[in-house]
Amino acid sequence: MVGIQTTKAAASAPQAHKTPPSLLYMVKQVELVARSHLDELVKPSGITALQYTALTVLERHDGLSAAQLARDSFVTAQSIADLVRTLERRGLIRRVRNPRNRRELLILLTEEGRELLDRHAGPVRELEERMVRELTAHQTEQLRTALSKAWHALS
After folding, report:
1. Rounded CA separation 3/154 (Å)
2. Please, what is the angle between helix 23-42 and helix 49-60, to 10°?
3. CA–CA dist 78, 66 (Å, integer)
4. Whether the predicted pLDDT of 3 surpasses 60
5. Between residues 77 and 32, which one has the greater pLDDT?
6. Phi-psi bin for 18: left (phi > 0), alpha (psi -120 to 50), beta?
7. How far apart are CA 39 and CA 49, in angstroms?
8. Contact, 92 vs 113, CB < 8 A?
9. Rounded to an integer, what distance in angstroms lies between the CA atom of residue 15 and that of residue 18?
10. Contact 144/131 with Cβ under 8 angstroms?
11. Residue 66: other Cβ atoms inside 10 A
12. CA–CA separation, 155 and 135 (whole Å)
């Protein structure tokens, strides 16, 4: 009888407080789901989310070296070579010699690359708006600031 009472007491006891997931885990969750949705958005254009990211980096900072593009696009130096070749074959980027360092090639966004980004600007903006739909404008700006500070702290 004592064993039964203990079991009943345990069953009716409140659940132990669960530790919330770590921020690293939550950031990774958001990154994975956002990337999945982004992949679906850009798939009709025949590119991946990583390729799209590289194009948006070039849109903001045209004329980067492959090493700089890799860092800013969150891919390894080894991965960037294939990514650049693919985008160049598609006519979305072009490479030119750096006039200050003839051994270095700079990567530039082509007009076709800019047009592809323009076609996806609306749907990508809608995805971002969906992501922060339950936040106020102030909370969204706070999130942007907090993420930027977190990135700088680890860079």
Report:
1. 52
2. 90
3. 10
4. no
5. 32
6. beta
7. 5
8. yes
9. 8
10. no
11. 17
12. 27
What residue has token string 């010699």? 97
The rounded distance, in Å, linking the Cα atoms of 110 and 75 is 21
Q: Which amino acid is at 87?
A: L
Q: Is 14 helix (H, G, I), strand (E, B) or coil?
A: coil
154 — pLDDT class (breaks 50, 70, 90): very high
Record the pTM: 0.80
Q: Could you read off the pLDDT of 42-97 as tens digits, one per residue?
A: 999 999 999 999 999 999 999 999 999 999 998 998 899 999 999 999 999 999 99
Q: List, in order, residues 6 or more apart from 98 with CB less than 8 Å away.
A: 65, 104, 105, 106
| 8 Å CB contact between 46 and 54 | no
CB-CB contact of 105 with 98 (8 Å): yes
User: How far is residue 149's CA from residue 5's CA, in Å, rounded to a whole number?
Assistant: 53
